[in-house]
Amino acid sequence: NAGVTQTPKFRILKIGQSMTLQCAQDMNHNYMYWYRQDPGMGLKLIYYSVGAGITDKGEVPNGYNVSRSTTEDFPLRLELAAPSQTSVYFCASSYSSGIKYEQFFGPGTRLTVL
Amino acid sequence: RKEVEQDPGPFNVPEGATVAFNCTYSNSASQSFFWYRQDCRKEPKLLMSVYSSGNEDGRFTAQLNRASQYISLLIRDSKLSDSATYLCVVLTGGGNKLTFGTGTQLKVEL
């Protein structure tokens, strides 16, 4: 049981390039999330999904796109990378509800845009 | 006003000390409350949920005051391994969306 996995771990992009951050979970969780964390800041929600085929915007969606074709995978697409997108990106997943609600996080992708 | 506010610290304490972190939240409709721990350059991990009656897990005690929209975390007998950033987290609204505070950094020293 790998939990939440993310690839790549690190990436340097040039301004204007595009890339996809991969996220997968093997816990059969309905809900999946993408966050970004800037230095000294809390996590900001980019996009989330409540199930396959359903996605919705979070607090900071501009410059990003997502898709959820399967329960397991939730890739995050950056189009036309900008220096403001330099951050650490965390993917998370959870069950929909429960007394002991918890989001499980992947190890993160550190992205630098130069 | 930020949705979730925390003192950023750092709190530098000696081993064995008791330390308390506070957090306030602005949305009175918030449903659930948590403390997450984040080690340097690692992902956040759930430390404990916070229940209305207060709850304890070993050396850690969490309290919730809904009237004052205030959450606290008390760590007793601090260990070197407790050094980390503690994130106050609130669940509000549909989609089980979490709102994170910026975190309070704790450094436990010999």
Report what the structure shows.
The complex is a heterodimer of chains A (114) and B (110). Chain A contains no helices and eleven strands. Chain A has strands spanning 4-7, 10-13, 19-25, 31-37, 43-51, 54-57, 64-66, 76-78, 87-94, 104-105, 109-113. In chain A, strands 2, 4, 5, 6, 9, 10 and 11 form a seven-stranded mixed beta sheet that branches. A four-stranded antiparallel beta sheet of chain A has the order 1-3-8-7, with no helix packed on it. The mean pLDDT of chain A is 94. Chain B contains no helices and eleven strands. Chain B starts with a strand and ends with a strand. In chain B, 35% of the residues are buried. Helix content of chain B is 0%, strand content 55%. The chains are: A mainly beta (114), B mainly beta (110). Chain A binds chain B through residues 31, 33, 35, 40-45, 48, 50, 56, 58, 90, 94, 96-97, 100-103, 105-108, and chain B through 4, 8, 32, 34, 42-46, 49, 87, 91, 95-103.
What's this entry about, in short?
The complex is a heterodimer of chains A (114) and B (110). Chain A has 114 residues and is an all-beta fold. Chain A has no helices and eleven strands.
Key terms:
heterodimer, A: 114 residues, mainly beta, seven-stranded mixed sheet, four-stranded antiparallel sheet, B: 110 residues, six-stranded mixed sheet, five-stranded antiparallel sheet, 0% helix, 55% strand
Helix-strand layout with pairing:
The complex is a heterodimer of chains A (114) and B (110).
Chain A lengths: L3 E4 L2 E4 L5 E7 L5 E7 L5 E9 L2 E4 L6 E3 L9 E3 L8 E8 L9 E2 L3 E5 L1
Chain B lengths: L3 E3 L4 E4 L4 E7 L6 E7 L5 E7 L4 E3 L2 E6 L4 E6 L8 E8 L6 E3 L3 E6 L1
Parallel strand pairs in B: 2-11
Antiparallel strand pairs in B: 1-3, 3-8, 4-5, 4-9, 6-7, 7-8, 9-10, 9-11
